[in-house]
Amino acid sequence: MIQVVHVISDLDAGGAEVMLAKLVGRMDRNKFSNSVVSLTDCGPVGKQIESLGVAVHTLGMKRGQPGVGAVFRLIRLLRTLKPAIVQSWLYHADILSTVTARFSRSPILIWNVRCSDMDLNKSPPLTRLVQRVLAWWSAVPAAVIVNSEAGKRQHERLGYQPRRWDVIPNGFDTQRFRPDSSLRLVCRKEWQVADDAVVVALVARVDPMKDHATFLKAAQQIVRARDNAYFILVGRGTETLSSDVAAKGLRGRVRLLGYRDDVEHLLPGADVACLSSAFGEGFPNVLGEAMACGIPCVSTDVGDARKIIGDTGRIVPVCDPTGLANAVIDLIDRGRAERESLGSAARERIEAEYSLSAVVDRYCALYSELAGLSARTS
After folding, report:
1. Owning domain of residue 237
2. Residues 319 and 262 in one domain
3. How far apart are CA 181 and CA 28, in angstroms?
4. Does 299 lie in the same domain as 256?
5. Do 34 and 127 fall within a single domain?
6. Are residues 238 and 158 in the same domain?
7. Which candidate, 3, 30, 76, 236, has a CA 20 to 30 Å from the CA of 318?
8. Is residue 176 part of a domain?
9. Does one domain contain both 320 and 243?
10. Is 229's pLDDT higher than 80?
C-alpha cells in the first residue's frame, strides 16, 4: 500500500481542487491510501473529498498571511501519517511542502503546477517571491507535474529546472458530464428561456483572470446583432454582477446563478460555452466539462485551450470582446444542427484524449514508479 498525502493551498471550488477530488476518488484503494491537507480550511471541495471516505486535514492559515505555526503543524502531521509520497498542489503548498518534507522524513516529494500565462505584474508580491524561490528549488522534488504544455513552457521561462517534468492533463468523467436533452428542457424552464433561444454559458468565478468584463462587452455586441441570444454566468461571485449587467443594457438577457455544485446539470441547457480568461489558465476544466456535455466552445487563446478544443470550436485572442462576439455569432448563425454536430465531435475528443480513467492511471503509474525507486534505493 502506497500512502500519499496531498497538500493543497485551499479547497475552494477551483480547477486544481476539483482535479484532486476526482483523483483521490478514483485511485485504487487496494494499492493507494490518500489523505488531503489544506493549508487553509476545508472548503466545499474538502467536504466533497470527505464524502468519498478520504481524510481531510486543515492547517488554518489565513490567505496571504504566511504562518510559521502551520509549518510545525504540517511537520507533525506528516510524521504521524508517514507517507511514502507528498504530492503538493499549487505554489504555496509547493513551498510549504518542500520546507516540511525534509524535517518530516518524507522520502518523495512531487510538485503539481496548474497555471500558465501569468501576468506577473498583477501577481501579489508574496506570490512573485514564492515563484522565484520555487524556481531556485525546482530540482528538489522528484518530479514536477504540469497539466498543460503551456504551463511547462511558462515555468521553464521562470527558471524551473526540475529533475523530471511530467505533463498530465486534467481528466473528465464522461458519465457525469454528458449530453442530456431532458436537462435542456429543465434548465430552459428554470432560466425562463425559450427552447429556440441560443444560450451562451460562462462558468467561472469572478476573478480578474477570468475577465468577465470582456465577456459582458462581447455579450452586449452579440445581443445587438442577434436578438435570440441569452447568457448564463455560473461561479462564485457572479451573483454580484447585476450592476455590470445593467450597465451593458443586458438586463433580462443574463442569468446570474452564483456558485453551483451541479454544473453537469446546467451545461446541457446551453448551446455554446465560453472561456474569456485573460491569463493564468493551464488546462481549463470548464472546456473539458462543456465538451463532454456535447457543447461547442469559444475560448480565448490561453493555456492549452487551443489544443483541447482542436477543430470542434473557436479560439480568439485574449481581451478582444469583438473577436469573442464574432466567434459566438458565427456559432449562432450555423444553426442548432451544426452546433450539435460540433458538440458531438467535442465529446468524442474528450473521450479519446482526456478520459478521467486514463489520467488517473498516469498519476498512479508515476506514484508507483517513484515509490518503487525509493524502496530500491533504501
Report:
1. 181-350
2. yes
3. 33
4. yes
5. yes
6. no
7. 236
8. no
9. yes
10. yes
pLDDT in tens, 26-71: 999 999 999 999 998 998 999 999 999 999 999 988 766 666 778 8
Which grid coordinates are listed for 311? Answer: 477543430
- Same domain, yes or no: 197 and 297: yes
From residue 110, alpha-carbon distances to 26, 86, 285 in Å are 19, 6, 22
Tally of domains within the chain: 2
CA distance 252 to 231: 10
90: left (phi over 0), alpha (psi -120 to 50) or beta: left
Q: What is the CATH number of the domain that holds 195?
A: 3.40.50.2000
Q: Torsions phi, psi of 310, nearest 5?
A: 60, -135
Q: Is-contact 300 327, C-beta < 8 A?
A: no
pTM, rounded to two decimals: 0.86
Query: 122 and 31 share a domain?
Result: yes
pLDDT value at 121 more than 80:
no
* Position 372 in a domain: yes
HEC per residue, the chain: CEEEEEEECCCCCCHHHHHHHHHHHHCCCCCEEEEEEECCCCHHHHHHHHHCCCEEEECCCECCECCHHHHHHHHHHHHHHCCCEEEEECHHHHHHHHHHHHHCCCCEEEEEECCECCCHHHCCHHHHHHHHHHHHHCCCCCEEEECCHHHHHHHHHCCCCCCCEEECCCCECCCCCCCCHHHHHHHHHHHCCCCCCEEEEEECCCCHHHCHHHHHHHHHHHHHHCCCEEEEEECCCHHHCHHHHHHCCCCCCEEEEECCCCHHHHHHHCCEEEECCCCECCCCHHHHHHHHCCCCEEEECCCCHHHHHCCCCEEECCCCHHHHHHHHHHHHHHCHHHHHHHHHHHHHHHHHHCEHHHHHHHHHHHHHHHHHHHHHHC
Same domain, 86 and 224: no
